[in-house]
Write a structure and sequence with these properties.
The complex is a heterotrimer of chains A (302), B (310) and C (458). Helix content of chain A is 77%, strand content 0%. Chain A is mostly helical. In chain A, helix 10 packs across helix 14. Chain A starts with a helix and ends with a helix. Chain B has 2 domains: 52 residues, no CATH class; 188 residues, MetI-like fold. In chain B, 71% of the residues lie in helices and 1% in strands. Chain C has 458 residues and is α/β, with parallel strands linked by helices. Chain C has 2 domains: 227 residues, D-Maltodextrin-Binding Protein, domain 2 (3-Layer(aba) Sandwich), CATH 3.40.190; 195 residues, Periplasmic binding protein-like II (D-Maltodextrin-Binding Protein, domain 2). Chain C has a 6-stranded mixed sheet. A 4-stranded mixed sheet of chain C has the order 6-7-5-8. In chain C, strands 9-12 form a two-stranded parallel ribbon. In chain C, helix 3 packs across helix 16 and helix 3 runs antiparallel to helix 17. The chains are: A mainly alpha (302), B mainly alpha (310), C alpha/beta (458). Chains in contact: A-B, A-C, B-C. The interface between A and B is large, with 103 and 111 residues.
Chain lengths: 302, 310, 458
């Protein structure tokens, strides 16, 4: 049997190769066309953003550019006060990211290494929490934020509302679901022998966590970082509802404010959009592997 | 044999736990407790509160003493005298159907295509997935460049950009939902493709070869052999699709605040909190409807993820 | 750069005038707003406007200057307000700290803003909305400021600034009418004349169509512009009193008179720009249609001028009152002419220490000096203080003052005169109607009335 199959396979291969030639070409053509179609809106935005306003007013947007300029970028950058908004984003996203990863690793570790009766329940809670639409919780959350006290350095108005801390907190709480799911799945695959060896050697749970588990989890942590960074960066809703100060809003929510400013000037709007999209695009292009890995880990168990 | 090993293992672990130092036990409590408290307080407590608040009437001003219990009035009002509710529900369902039966299948199709040994597969994957890393708000802006009635790409190319013959993609309530769905699908398809591709790569090639030997065509191979094997991924993809379609908010809000044909349940909830007058109880009732619809896919995902013995 | 910073959301600018039915004595308001620009009616009860700087901070503490926090949410006006603040600081040494959020977002979130951590003072508008927040305890009364500035405003304005508890909460700053805007050069070129009746308006519309112009530009993406149209049709057909009653819930939407207003509107819809296009158009794009000569007229507030940054074009703009429709209320000539003003927020965390500074700031804003300083930069409005120097008014403002002066009744804008939750939904109702004006009116109006009833408004 085994002798027969390779021959048939080989013949099949050859047949496939010959028969598929035109099919392959068609496939490539289709793929190239689809890829270009997919990239078109982004490319169009970039193209529009590089054209001077006067030119597009004269010739329309669907025209060959007679000149290209970076003016729109300069204008968008300064008029929309993008540096300030980027700073807001950094203040909110970077700490939130670090905290989520830390907390998710912690609970992922504890739940994957040690069996408690409520393990399953907690994991289910976290997974479900990740899948809720934000609007389900926004109404009470909004009232909570207005009512809960927050001491001075973290809050300039005494409450959680309109504070960086408030947005960080909800990001952490909300993304904990996905992160815990991924990390606990991953940690379950780590061989028990490692942790058992550490425990036998007298390492405390904490030390095992820091010095054994975390380093071993570099791969899912990196993957999660790219995903979570992108999701937190792209957040529009939380800062829209839980913040009111225009100049504290992170970059994506701030875009809504900028709409009225740019409305009649598409070139500026395009430039602004490209600038705002740039960080996520760069993260994606450089760390694509991690991205995909993160999604994969998040969609399968073990 | 496996059972006894497991039992022995479990026993060992239990024994081990009780052998842990007190300090370790406290550490564990903190490691589990802190994240759990944060998550429960900011996600689950509000969820319960939403359900409770939906039975009240409150204008959002003043303290808890201003809350009035009104039973199911909010739900009755929502269904009978609140004009945007049924359209919003309908739009959410349309969104769901389009995602489930058009966008996701396209994503799966692209994944299947890219699963072959193709040169440049990285490029195609990147191109298709790129929209996913963009915020839906940015997508709203980018597509407005395409859809703008007078200066957008589509109308200019079609020659329909003068007053008398313009197509108002985003202003015509019969068209705008579909226009938005195109933009949203643009993003969704890449997402599904990546997940499914990863799943496909995990399929044992022996299965595929066996099918080919048996004379199955590619379509048959996919439908009869691969698809069933990918059941876990299929469920994930379905759940993600439903959840993403229920979460839609950013893009319609950025385009026209979710009105005139772009009403969605998520927008209605927000409208009742923000705005110059707010109806907290009423908004919560809409949120509960959203929650109930979401529970389906959530439970599906949970049972599927955790049906293996813990 | 003509295309930047052109945004001025009507929401922020337009927030209504005290529509308390019957509280406003129209002649007095006209006197207050148009001193110097039109003959003062005999009913003006207050002293002749003196040119003295009446807002001299007589009650302001001359002790440590301090500072006051101020939310300036009228987008195109921020620079002008800052100019006023500079003068104020030069005069009193008190600094004004500006918070300039996005106008639309600000008004969307006003409820949470006022309850959260508002600034000491903020820009806002008169009307039901002001009184609503005052009643909820979110505003701090400014009776003592009013006792100083009372002489500078007519009774009508004081009434407009008063809450349901009889205390004052608002400082009226400026107002402007809703009118039909057009370009003088276009009318001259094509030989159009200003229509004053329904028939002449329709004839003009027909002529414009024949000339390839859209007669009436329309833009409703921002949702509220349609309210202005409803208001004017309702007031022309049913009169000011009915309109105010309808806003307050005393008259019913199912009343045949309301239907008559919609019928009159439907009659003129053929002259409007295409509705589906309008639904995707912002108000700035609406006035642009007139500027670009693709449309002949635009029914809107005069603040549309803020979106016209080319001074040559701006000078070419003129306007007239919406024509009469041949009803019993023709002579009343009621219009929407909302007032913008300032409030003091009760829950500001810094109010306790800033209160004197805040009061001084409000006093200054109530003075002719303050208002003129503002209008110098912004000739799309007219001042409300009596001692405002109107000699510097440009033609645009003089026309505005004329129109306000000749109106027999002045209403707020719909969403200022009525319950906020209802108004938000009303936008949707109006859009539904505009998309299908032939629908069953009984059913449509009943759905509006049912919604009102479900809100449980007393």
């Amino acid at each position: 049997m085994t002798a027969v199959i390779p021959d048939r396979m080989a013949r099949g291969e050859m047949v496939r190769r010959r028969r598929l030639r035109p099919k392959r070409i068609a496939l490539y053509a289709f793929l190239i066309a689809t890829a270009l179609l997919w990239l078109f809106p982004i490319l169009w935005a970039v193209y529009s953003s590089l054209r001077p306003y006067s030119e597009t007013q004269q010739f329309g947007y669907v025209s060959i550019a007679r000149s290209l300029t970076l003016d729109n970028y300069v204008n968008a950058w300064s008029e929309a006060q993008l540096p300030m908004r980027f700073l807001n984003t950094i203040i909110i996203v970077i700490p939130a990211l670090a905290i989520v990863l830390l907390l998710a690793s912690a609970i992922g570790y504890a739940l994957s290494r040690f069996s408690f009766r409520f393990n399953l329940f907690l994991l289910m809670l976290f997974t479900a929490g990740n899948l809720l639409p934000p609007q389900v919780i926004i109404t009470p959350l909004f009232r909570m934020y207005l009512a809960l006290p927050l001491p001075a350095p973290l809050s300039d108005n005494g409450t959680w509302y309109d504070q960086y801390f408030g947005i960080m907190a909800i990001h952490v709480a909300f993304q904990l679901g996905f992160a815990t799911f991924v990390l606990s799945n991953f940690m379950r695959t780590l061989p028990r022998e490692i942790t058992e060896a550490a425990l036998v050697d007298g390492a405390s749970v904490l030390r095992t966590f820091w010095q054994v588990i975390l380093p071993l989890s570099r791969v899912p942590l990196a993957a999660l970082s790219t995903l979570l960074f992108t999701w937190m960066y792209n957040d529009f809703y939380w800062a829209l509802v839980l913040m009111r100060s225009g100049d504290k809003r992170p970059i994506t929510s701030a875009l809504n404010d900028l709409q009225s400013m740019f409305f009649t000037d598409f070139n500026l709007l395009a430039a602004g959009s490209v600038i705002v999209a740039l960080p996520t695009l760069i993260v994606y292009l450089l760390l694509q592997r991690h991205f995909v890995r993160g999604l994969t880990l998040g969609s399968t168990t073990g | 044999m496996a059972a006894s090993t497991n039992a022995a293992g479990a026993a060992k672990r239990r024994r081990r736990f009780s052998l842990l130092t007190r300090r370790d036990k406290i550490t564990l409590a903190v490691l589990i407790g802190v994240p759990a408290v944060i998550h429960v307080t900011l996600v689950w407590v509000p969820t319960i509160c939403s359900i409770l608040l939906s039975l009240t009437s409150w204008n959002g001003i003043g303290g808890l003493e201003n809350i009035k219990y009104v039973g199911l009035d909010n739900y009755v009002n929502m269904a009978t005298v609140y004009p945007p509710f049924w359209p919003a529900l309908q739009h959410n369902l349309i969104w769901l159907v389009v995602f489930l039966f058009i966008a996701t299948p396209i994503g799966i199709f692209m994944a299947v295509l890219l699963d072959k040994n193709i040169r440049g597969t990285r490029f195609y994957q990147s191109a298709l997935f790129m929209p996913f890393v963009l915020s839906l708000a940015i997508i709203g802006f980018i597509w407005q460049l395409m859809y703008s009635p007078n200066e957008g790409f589509i109308n200019t190319v079609l020659g329909r950009n003068t007053e008398s013959n313009l197509i108002s993609w985003l202003g015509d309530r019969n068209l705008n939902l579909w226009a938005v769905l195109v933009a949203a699908s643009w993003r969704h398809i890449g997402y599904i493709m990546v997940i499914y591709l990863a799943g496909l790569k995990g399929v044992d090639s022996a299965l595929r070869e066996a099918a080919i030997i048996d004379g199955a065509s590619e379509t048959q191979t996919f439908l009869r052999v691969i698809l069933p094997v990918l059941r876990p991924i299929n469920i994930v993809v379905i759940v993600i699709t439903i959840i993403e379609s229920l979460r839609a908010f950013d893009i319609v809000y950025v385009i026209n605040k979710g009105t005139n044909g772009l009403e969605l349940l998520s927008v209605l909830v927000t409208q009742n909190i923000l705005g110059q007058g707010s109806r907290i109880g009423f908004g919560s009732a809409i949120a509960v409807v959203l929650l109930l619809i979401s529970l389906g896919p959530i439970l599906l995902f949970l049972t599927r993820s955790y049906e293996e013995p813990a | 750069m003509a295309f930047t910073r052109a945004a001025l959301s009507r929401r922020t600018v337009l927030k209504g005038m005290a529509g308390a039915a019957g509280l406003l004595s129209v002649p007095n308001i006209i006197a207050a707003c148009t001193s110097g620009a039109s003959p003062t009616p005999s009913a003006a009860p207050t002293a002749a406007p003196t040119a003295a700087p009446s807002a001299a901070p007589s009650a302001a503490p001359t002790a440590a200057p301090g500072s006051v926090k101020f939310a300036a949410t009228w987008s195109g006006d921020t620079d002008a307000l800052k100019a006023v603040a500079e003068k104020f600081t030069a005069k009193t040494g008190i600094t004004v700290k500006f918070n300039t959020p996005d106008p639309q977002t600000f008004s969307d979130q006003i409820v949470s803003y006022l309850q959260g951590t508002p600034d000491d003072t903020l820009t806002w508008y008169a009307g039901y909305r002001m009184r609503y927040y005052a009643e909820q305890g979110l505003l701090h009364d400014i009776n003592d400021v009013w006792s100083t500035i009372e002489s500078n405003y007519s009774d009508a304005f004081k009434a407009a600034s008063t809450g349901n508890d009889g205390k004052q909460y608002l400082i009226p700053f400026y107002n402007y009418p809703w009118v039909v805007i057009y370009r003088k050069s276009v009318f001259a070129d094509k030989g159009y004349t200003i229509p004053t009746t329904l028939a002449s308006f329709k004839a003009l519309g027909d002529k414009m169509k024949a000339d390839g112009l859209v007669p009436l530009s329309f833009a409703d993406k921002d949702l509220w512009p349609a309210e202005g149209h409803f208001d004017i049709f309702n007031m022309r057909v049913n009169g000011y009193q009915y309109h105010v009653d309808l806003m307050a819930g005393k008259a019913k939407w199912t009343d045949p008179r309301t239907e008559a207003a919609f019928t009159a509107w439907k009659d003129l819809l053929p002259y409007y720009a295409g509705i589906t296009g309008a639904m995707g158009r912002t108000w700035q794009e609406g006035i642009n249609e007139v500027v670009n000569k693709t449309a002949g007229m635009y029914f809107f507030g005069t603040f549309a001028g803020t979106a016209v940054t080319d001074p040559v074009v701006h000078d070419d703009l003129d306007f007239f009152t919406f024509p009469t429709l041949g009803t019993a209320y023709d002579s009343e000539m009621a219009i929407d002419a909302p007032i913008n003003g300032f409030l003091m927020a009760a829950k500001s965390p810094t109010l306790a220490e800033d209160i004197d500074a805040a009061k001084a700031w409000l006093e200054y804003l109530a003075s002719g000096e303050g208002q003129t300083a503002f209008l110098a930069a912004n000739p799309n409005f007219v001042a409300c203080a009596k001692d405002a120097d109107t000699s510097g008014y440009v033609q645009f403002q003089k026309r505005m003052a004329e129109i306000i002066g000749s109106a027999g009744a002045i209403a707020q804008f719909l969403d200022r005169d009525t319950d906020p939750v209802f108004a938000t939904q009303m936008n949707s109702f109006l859009q539904t109607w505009l998309n299908d004006p032939e629908q069953d009116m009984t059913k449509f109006l009943k759905s509006i009335q049912d919604f009102w009833d479900s809100l449980g408004i007393a």
